[in-house]
C-alpha cells in the first residue's frame, strides 16, 4: 500500500510537536550518531519539551527527500498526526494543516480508537486532564 505521507513532509515544517521524556530517550538511544537532548529539543513557554527546527523545518526532516530521518523511532505525536486533540473544543480533530487528512481514516470506528489512544497518551505522558 502506498504511504499516504510520501513526498509530503508538510507537518515537519515549522513543527511545534511536543515531546514526552520517553520520546526523547528513545531518539537519543536509537539515533545512529551521538546526539544530545539539547540538540533536538527545547522547553517551550508551557514548560514542555518541543522538537527543534532548523532552517524552517524539524531538525530530523531530510528536506530534499521529504523524509523523516528517524521514522522508525519518531515521536508519538508524529505517529498520531494528523490526528490532534483540541483542548478548547475537547475533542480529537484531523488537523487542517495536513493536505491529505481525509485519506487517513476509512471508518469512524478506526478514528474513534485512535482518538482514545491519543487521549490516553496525553494523559499519561503529559499529565493532561482530559474528560
Ligand atoms: S501527516 Fe499529512 S502533512 Fe504530514 S506528511 Fe503525512 S500527509 Fe503530509
Ligand atoms: S520527527 Fe520526523 S515526522 Fe516528526 S516532525 Fe520531525 S521529521 Fe517530521
Helices and strands, with pairings:
Blueprint (H helix, E strand, L loop, with lengths): L17 E2 L1 H10 L6 H4 E3 L5 E3 L1 E2 L2 E2 L2 E2 L4 E2 L7 H5 L2 E4 L4 E4 L13 H19 L5
Antiparallel strand pairs: 1-3, 2-3, 4-5, 6-7, 8-9
Bound molecules: iron/sulfur cluster (SF4) (2 copies).
One iron/sulfur cluster binds next to loops.
Globally, the shape reads: globular
**What would the average pLDDT be, to the nearest integer?**
94
Fraction of residues in helix: 25-40%
Alpha carbon gap, first and last residue: 36 Å
Derived from helix and strand composition plus strand pairing, the structural class reads alpha+beta
How do the strands line up in the largest sheet?
Answer: 1-3-2
Number of helices: 4
What is the string of SSEs from the N terminus onward?
A: EHHEEEEEEHEEH
Over all CA atoms, what is the radius of gyration?
15 Å
So what's the oligomer here? Answer: single chain
**Which kinds of small molecule does this entry bind, naming each only once?**
iron/sulfur cluster
Let me know the largest β-sheet.
3 strands, antiparallel
Number of strands: 9
| Model regions low in confidence, pLDDT < 50 over at least 5 residues | none
Question: Any overview of this molecule?
Answer:
Helix content is 29%, strand content 18%. It has 131 residues and is α+β, with helices and mostly antiparallel strands. It has one domain (10-125). The protein is globular, with a radius of gyration of 15 Å. The protein binds iron/sulfur cluster (2 copies). One iron/sulfur cluster is lined by residues 4-5, 8-11, 81-82, 98, 100.
Amino acid at each position: 500500500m502506498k504511504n499516504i505521507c510520501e513526498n509530503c513532509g508538510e507537518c515537519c515544517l515549522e513543527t511545534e510537536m511536543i515531546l514526552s521524556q520517553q520520546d526523547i530517550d528513545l531518539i537519543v538511544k536509537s539515533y545512529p550518531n551521538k546526539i544530545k537532548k539539547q540538540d533536538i529539543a527545547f522547553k517551550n513557554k508551557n514548560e514542555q519539551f518541543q522538537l527543534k527546527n532548523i532552517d524552517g523545518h524539524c531538525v530530523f526532516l531530510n528536506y530534499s527527500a521529504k523524509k523523516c530521518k528517524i521514522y522508525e523511532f519518531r515521536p508519538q505525536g508524529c505517529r498520531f498526526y494528523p490526528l490532534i486533540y483540541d483542548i478548547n473544543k475537547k475533542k480529537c480533530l484531523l488537523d487542517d494543516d495536513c493536505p491529505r487528512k481525509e485519506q487517513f481514516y476509512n471508518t469512524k470506528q478506526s478514528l474513534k480508537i485512535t482518538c482514545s489512544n491519543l487521549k490516553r497518551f496525553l494523559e499519561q505522558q503529559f499529565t493532561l486532564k482530559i474528560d
